[in-house]
Design brief:
The protein is of the alpha+beta class. The protein is built from 10 helices and 7 strands. The protein folds into 2 domains: 3-234, no CATH class; 241-336, Beta Complex (Ferric Hydroxamate Uptake Protein, Chain A, domain 1).
Length: 340
């Protein structure tokens, strides 16, 4: 092994730096309410594959995603069927890293200066990366959560279009504003000493890891997806349940993905944890059902009003813990005078 093939300490520091930036950046964007799918991991994946040793660059998206999941309180590698989407998100970034690794010579040559052509290429790369990633992860949602038909596949992709648009803007903007200047700066100052062309033998570990993640995405391996990765799904009326709670002078609204056998009561409990409001209820053994006594401090009987739930503007004839909801339903809890 000659000196150009050795891993320098500077390369390790760059990798660690990119991972830390990714963890902090994703945590900040999620915690402070950035638009859905506006993210930083993708541009870090691209820049790392260009500026650092390819055999190490793949650690950037994986390390940043896992680290930020932990920081956000999202447990990993445990959970239910729907939670396996995390493997599709990780393998999606790995695929992007693999593509960049094999094209790095051409990409670095065309992105070494800032001019109209290189700006257009950077924007195009951002859009292309987003399309590849979103097509892959949406395929994962379809594979994990829906019947394997062309109709449901089309519905999943259709539901993701509004959020893909935001992601496309994010990709184009970050590749032009962040990626291109970093690559130009490193080229001019020759910050990296590794050869632009890398022997194929050093690409094999990256390819092997990427293939492994892809295969695991389609197996029974279970992992918990970050709630934030559900944003496009939860905010689509076609692929989630809209929950509206209407008090006397306040309104709460939430969107939740309904899983198999979820009831109206299940979603109300889940929403109470997400939005931090209290619910009180009583179980009546004679009817084998529960009655909601209070939501968000508003108790039954106040001003002659009581809590009543509606499904798609209709009053069901069963208790909230017996009605099974479906994605696409609109569930409303209204505090109102109940007609007798």
């Amino acid at each position: 092994m000659n000196i150009s093939e050795k891993i320098e300490p500077r390369q390790i520091l760059l990798i660690i730096g990119f991972i830390i930036i990714g963890i902090i950046g994703r945590y900040a964007l999620v915690s402070y309410g950035a638009p859905p799918n506006f993210e930083i991991i993708m541009i870090l994946t691209f820049v790392a594959a260009i500026l650092t040793r390819p055999s190490l660059a793949i650690l950037v998206p994986l390390g940043a995603m896992i680290g930020s999941d932990i920081a956000l309180g999202n447990p990993i590698f445990v959970g239910a069927q729907a939670n396996r989407i995390v493997l599709f998100t990780y393998s999606g970034f790995a695929l992007l890293s693999l593509f960049t690794m094999f094209q790095r010579t051409r990409l670095k040559r065309h992105l070494s200066t800032i001019q109209l052509k290189s700006v257009g290429m950077a924007a195009g790369l951002g859009i292309g990366f987003v399309l590849l990633y979103d097509l892959w992860t949406n395929l994962g949602w379809w594979y994990l959560m829906y019947p394997h038909t062309l109709e449901t596949l089309g519905a999943v992709y259709l539901a993701g279009i509004p959020f893909m648009i935001i992601h496309l803007i994010s990709g184009a903007a970050t590749f032009v504003v962040i990626g291109l200047p970093l690559i130009v700066y490193s080229s001019q100052l020759q910050l990296t000493t590794i050869p632009i062309s890398t022997r194929h033998i050093y690409k094999l570990p990256v390819a092997a890891l990427t293939v492994l993640l892809v295969l695991l995405s389609f197996t029974g391996t279970s992992a918990v997806v970050p709630n934030q990765s559900d944003i496009w799904l939860e905010h689509s009326q076609e692929t989630s349940v809209t929950l509206i709670i209407q008090g006397d002078d306040w309104t709460l609204k939430d969107n939740l993905v309904a899983y198999e056998d979820d009831t109206v009561f299940d979603l109300l409990q889940r929403s109470s944890q997400r939005l931090d409001f209290d619910i009180e209820y009583t179980y009546y053994e004679d009817f084998d059902s529960i009655l909601i006594d209070s939501i968000h401090g508003t108790e039954n009987g106040a001003n002659g009003k009581y809590w009543q739930y509606y499904i798609n503007d209709q009053i069901p004839m069963v208790g909230a813990d017996a009605y099974i909801v479906s994605n696409g339903d609109i569930v409303e809890w209204r505090f109102e005078i109940i007609p007798y």
